[in-house]
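Budget justification aside, the reviewers requested a transparent look at the raw inputs and outputs of the sequence design task funded under Objective 1. We therefore reproduce one unedited record. The lines immediately below are the structure tokens for a 90-residue chain.
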């Protein structure tokens, strides 16, 4: 505690907590964090431009095209993935 009348009392500076500060002012539960992640991925899944979507969305689209048995779309999506991570053959 600090005495407001005493000019010699200094404010204590406590060490900050480790890690990234919470986004909404409180720590999210694992379920909340997973729900936000799924909502972000679902929002990206509707984009027509697969070259700018995240890797996980691209993999979901590849999985869906394989399930739908669409070889042309699967080949295109795999090519986009290959362009992101080209193989270095020795």
């Amino acid at each position: 505690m600090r005495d407001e009348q005493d000019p010699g009392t200094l404010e204590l500076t406590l060490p900050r907590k480790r890690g990234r500060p919470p986004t909404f002012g409180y720590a999210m539960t694992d379920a909340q964090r997973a729900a936000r992640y799924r909502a972000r991925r679902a929002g990206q899944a509707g984009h027509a431009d697969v070259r700018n979507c995240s890797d996980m969305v691209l993999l979901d689209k590849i999985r869906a095209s394989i399930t739908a048995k669409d070889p042309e779309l699967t080949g295109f999506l795999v090519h986009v993935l290959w362009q992101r991570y080209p193989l270095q053959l020795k």
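The longest helix spans residues 30-45. The chain has a mean pLDDT of 84. Computational costs for records of this kind are itemized in the attached budget.
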